[in-house]
Amino acid sequence: MQRYFLKENAECHQRFFITQKEDIHHIKNVMRLSVNDEIIINFLNGTYKSKILSTDDSIEIMTMELINIHTELPVEITICSGLIKSDKYEWLLQKGTELGATSFIATHMDRSIVKLTESKVNKKLDRWQKIVKEAAEQSYCQMIPEVKYISNLNAIYD
Predict the structure, then answer these.
(1) pLDDT value for 111
(2) What is the pTM of this model?
(3) How far apart are CA 33 and CA 148, in angstroms?
(4) What are 146's strand-pairing partners?
(5) Is 35's pLDDT higher than 80?
(6) Number of C-alpha atoms within 13 angstroms, CB side, residue 140?
């Protein structure tokens, strides 16, 4: 069953709207789900099996039952790495998320080939956050890891 994330608290038999364009497109066009189909939604306070009520401009769902799933590691893991070429860093984010990392820190190293300018940082962070979100959905994670960029390795220690 397909799973999605909502940054809200939930209770059983409560209605919610999925408003993210990527998720709406995925539900309607990729998965071709329709009214009365079931999906899994990860909320801040738990995971719920939910039923789709409508698929208009947004997807309206109702939580049906709380699912007791514990797939997270008992420790928090942060992966800090220097910037590597785009596709390899995206692969690192994907596999790290699938293995249970809870956060990532990208930083500039003295010998890094990749250089990020201030104008590109936000665009890259948005892309990286999208990659870890999709990897978390696919690997049944209960939370989406956080991705940060710190321009100087010494700033991590401060």
Answers:
(1) 78
(2) 0.80
(3) 34
(4) 103
(5) yes
(6) 8
